[in-house]
Amino acid sequence: MNSKRKLIYEGKAKILYEGPEPGTLIQYFKDDATAFNGEKKAQLEGKGVINNRISEFVMTRLNQIGITNHFIKRLNLREQLIREVEIVPLEVVVRNVAAGSIAKRLGLEEGTPLPRSIIEFYYKKDELNDPMVSEEHITAFNWATTQEMDEMLATAIRVNDFLCGMFSAVGITLVDFKIEFGRIYENDFSRVILADEISPDSCRLWDTATGEKLDKDRFRRDMGNVIESYTEVARRLGIMKDMPTVIQGGLH
Ligand SMILES: Nc1ncnc2c1ncn2[C@@H]1O[C@H](COP(=O)(O)OP(=O)(O)OP(=O)(O)O)[C@@H](O)[C@H]1O
Ligand SMILES: [Mg+2]
C-alpha cells in the first residue's frame, strides 16, 4: 500500500483511496470479514485477494454485455481502479431461492425456489440496521428518482439473468445477491451505474449438486472452510490459474 495516497473511506470490507485521475478511486479489498452489521468480525487470510479477482471477473463480463459498471482495471492483488460514483444509499437485493432474511420474515423453508425472481431494496444506514424500504419510501425521501429506480430494476434483472447463467454453467446456483449503484454525471445529465463489488461476500452461492454453501453464510453461521469455498468459486470460474502460487498453495 502506498502511504502517501489519500484515504477517502474505510469500510468493513474495503478501503477507497483517491485515484490517479479525477473521477477515479482505488478500491482495496481487505481480509476483514464482518456480519450482522459488524457485530461479528474476523480476519480471513486471502479473502481480499480472491474477492478482488472474482469482482474483476464478474464486472468485466458484465461490461462486455453492456452493463456499465465502475470497474476500470485491476491494479494488483488487492486493488482495482474504479470510477468514482455518488453511491445511491440503497442495497438492491435480487432473490431466486428463499434464504436468509426472506425465509425468516415470510416463514419459507430455506432452499424453496421463489415463484419468480424478487427484488428488494434496503436503505443503507448502519445505525438503523439497513431496513427494507419500498419504492414509495425511496422516491418520497429522494434517495433515488423514479427514473433511477427503473434503471436499477432493469439492470438488476439483467445482472441476475447473466449471473444465473454464468454460475449454473459451473454447477453453482445463484440463490440471491446484493448490488449497489452510483450516479455519474455527464454534462447536465446523471445516470446510475453498477458499483461496489460482486463476490461470495455479496452473493449466496450453493453447489447445485450437493447444496453446499460456497459463500459468506459459511462465516455468518460458523460453518468453517470459508476461504476454501471462496477459492472453489474462483476455481470453477476459471480464475484460480491466474492467482499467485502462494495463494493457490496456501488455500488448498
Ligand atoms: N465506485 C464507487 N465510488 C464511490 N463509492 C463506492 C464505489 N463503489 C463502492 N463504493 C462504496 O465504498 C464502500 C466500500 O466499502 P465497504 O463495502 O467495506 O463498506 P461497508 O463497510 O460495507 O459500509 P457501507 O455501509 O458504507 O457499504 C461502500 O460504502 C460502498 O458503497
Ligand atoms: Mg459494503
From TrEMBL:
Keywords of this entry: ATP-binding, Ligase, Nucleotide-binding, Purine biosynthesis
Q: Which organism is it from?
A: Brevundimonas terrae
- Identify the metabolic or biological route this protein is part of: Purine metabolism; IMP biosynthesis via de novo pathway; 5-amino-1-(5-phospho-D-ribosyl)imidazole-4-carboxamide from 5-amino-1-(5-phospho-D-ribosyl)imidazole-4-carboxylate: step 1/2
Question: EC number(s)?
Answer: 6.3.2.6
| Domain SAICAR synthetase/ADE2 N-terminal: residue ranges | 7-236
| Catalytic activity annotation | 5-amino-1-(5-phospho-D-ribosyl)imidazole-4-carboxylate + L-aspartate + ATP = (2S)-2-[5-amino-1-(5-phospho-beta-D-ribosyl)imidazole-4-carboxamido]succinate + ADP + phosphate + 2 H(+)
The protein's name is Phosphoribosylaminoimidazole-succinocarboxamide synthase
User: Gene that codes for this?
Assistant: purC
Q: Which family does it belong to?
A: Belongs to the SAICAR synthetase family.
Question: In the UniProt record, does the keyword Hydrolase occur?
Answer: no
Q: Does the keyword Nucleotide-binding apply?
A: yes
Stored CDD domains: SAICAR_synt_PurC
